[in-house]
Structure formats: structure tokens, C-alpha cells
Amino acid sequence: DHDLAVGTQAGDAVEALGTLTGVQEIMDLELRGTTLFLCSNSSGFLIVDVAAPEAPRLLAWEVGVQPRCDHLALDPEGRTLYLAGHAAGPAAFGFLSAVDVSDPTDPRQIRATFPDIPLEGIVVRGGELLVAAHGEGLVFLDRSSLVERDRLGGFENAWKLAIDGDIAWVADGVGGLVSVDLADPAGPAILGRLTL
Questions:
Q1: Starting at the edge strand that comes first in sequence, how are the strands of the sheet with 138-142 ordered?
Q2: pTM for the full model?
């Protein structure tokens, strides 16, 4: 068993305020108010109430379409949680799931898709999802249908991304940091690259 520790840093020491036992391999998380959404590599996704940091309370634990969950993103409204991941091993394929979390104690899968590529970091932008997909680059999907609408190549190992306005910043593994212009929905383009 592993514990999820909720803590605070006081000076140079980190003090554990509370734990939630039984949680293993947390890969990603997002906090919205006092609700924490967790993605577990071996245990699906979890929803935790952290209003009392000394006593985090499990609201829901769902394995979903696949027990492996690598990345997640919550829509701005806080109603839909998107889960992305991939199967381990030589027959790698991805999965993307949309889950209704409007009632965090009763999450319900809305839809899922299984693209033929592994998926990693995911960001919600307006009516679309942007997903990092290793050497496949960035995958653009319609948020409501989860149908792919575009891909942008030119990446070594797209892993995670962040968006600021019309610019996406992509952690590209050995390819460094890549900036992408999203201003034209019909033609996203790589702007620059910083290799280290």
C-alpha cells in the first residue's frame, strides 16, 4: 500500500497533514476548489475531497475503461473529466475517456475511444482537446465526440503541454520545449524550439 499525503511546507520542512491509504502510482492530478482529481497508473482515477487537508476523504474510485490512467484534464465548467493514457508493452494503443463528474460521488463515463497511438498530456481548449502523443505530435480532438480532427507532427516525444492564449507549449522529451501557434484552427504550426 502507498499513501497519498496532503501537506504544507513550513519553512524548509514539509509537514504531512493527512493521508489516504491504498492509492498507488499517482501520475497526474488537478485541483478544483476542494475537490482533487487523481489519475493512477495502476488504479484508474480517484476523486478526493480535500476540504480538510488533515483528513482527505475519498469520494469515488473508478477503474473506468482501463485501469491505467496517465493524464487527466477537467473542463472549465468542472463537469467533464477527460482521461488519457496508453497500454504498456509492444502493442501500445491509446485510450481517451470523457467522464461526467458533475456529482463527484457518482462519476459516469460519457464516451471513450481507443486510438492506435499512445496518448499522454491532455488540455481542454474551447470545444477541443489537445493531446500529446509522443512521436505522433499533437492530436486535436472534438471535445464532445472525441473524434480526431487534426494532427501536428514534427515532434520527438510530445509528453505534456500547457496553453496560454493561442500558444501551446509542448514538453517534447529529447526534442526540448516546442511552441505551437494555435491561432488558426485549420492550421496549427510549430513556432519555435528550445533544445537543451
A1: 122-125, 128-132, 138-142, 148-152
A2: 0.85
